[in-house]
Amino acid sequence: MPASYAYLGPEGTFTEVALRTLPEAATRELVPMVSVPAALDAVRNGEAEAAFVPIENSVEGGITTTLDELVAGEPLMIYREVLLSITFALLVRPDTKLSEIKTVTAHPAAQPQVRNWMKANLPDVVWESAASNADGARLVQEGRYDAAFAGEFAAAKYGLVPLETGIHDAENAQTRFVLVGRPARPAAPTGADKTSIVLWQRDDHPGGLRDLLGEFAVRGVNLMLLQSRPTGAGIGNYCFCIDAEGHISDRRVAETLMGLKRICLQVRFLGSYPRAGVRAEDVPTALPGTSDDEFVKASDWVARCQDGRF
Ligand SMILES: O=C(O)C(=O)Cc1ccccc1
């Protein structure tokens, strides 16, 4: 049996479409799962080599189920990311008219991307969340709802037809997906990489978040995502999910992680991996004083000072 990748299913999700853009997916068995936690659990318990799940979209920010799963439980690591442009189709059973639609369903992350369209075209329908957009289509096929927002490609799989296509409140809406596996050595740096971590503050004090961010700022490390998530320990208790530019093998990133490790209660490393759609030559050069070479020279100089050989 080939190694398998679990993904947010059923067949016909945007997640599946994004996964199939990865060359390595062609040599794996792709196994649809009912939810993001189920896909990640399949990795944790060794049933799947990796899981492919949505993590962020450009309209609403982080997909909280995924972030919360990566923040807690047995540690996992991100190895790849994929960006997919998303527009929705309104899928119905054949012969359904727009005026007959009373109920509509889709994944919760779809709602902010179709809200204005719904207000204009389906003002009085009842929205209910589905486990994924393709699962919504499946529920329409079963007769549980009148319509589903999903990828147009899901229609044929579930015996539905697109009543409307190209639905998107925001131009260029994109969703980011990640391939997640058990912890192992990160892939070698490509020159256009990203590092994901989770931080827990040691204590609550004025400027606490600024102290964390200062560790990135003084080493010239750019942030790409900052999302707070409740720790569950009471109102006001948050951890921070952060994506930073660069690879853990870059000295400025490694030194930032060391700085954070010293001042945080806990740091969880979620991986260093290639940025989707960005070439190394398009990444700005390191700010003055933050290149690998400058870090190495500075640390050699301190060693010489400690030896009295400066
Ligand atoms: O992959 C899907 O189809 C999902 O249900 C997740 C999702 C939700 C909204 C936009 C893109 C992906």
Automatic annotation (TrEMBL):
Pfam families: ACT, PDT
Summary of subunit composition and partner proteins: Homodimer.
Species, as recorded: Streptomyces avermitilis
Domain ACT: 197-274
Protein name as it appears in the record: Prephenate dehydratase
Pathway(s) served: Amino-acid biosynthesis; L-phenylalanine biosynthesis; phenylpyruvate from prephenate: step 1/1
Enzyme kind, highest EC tier: lyase
Keyword Ribosomal protein among record annotations: no
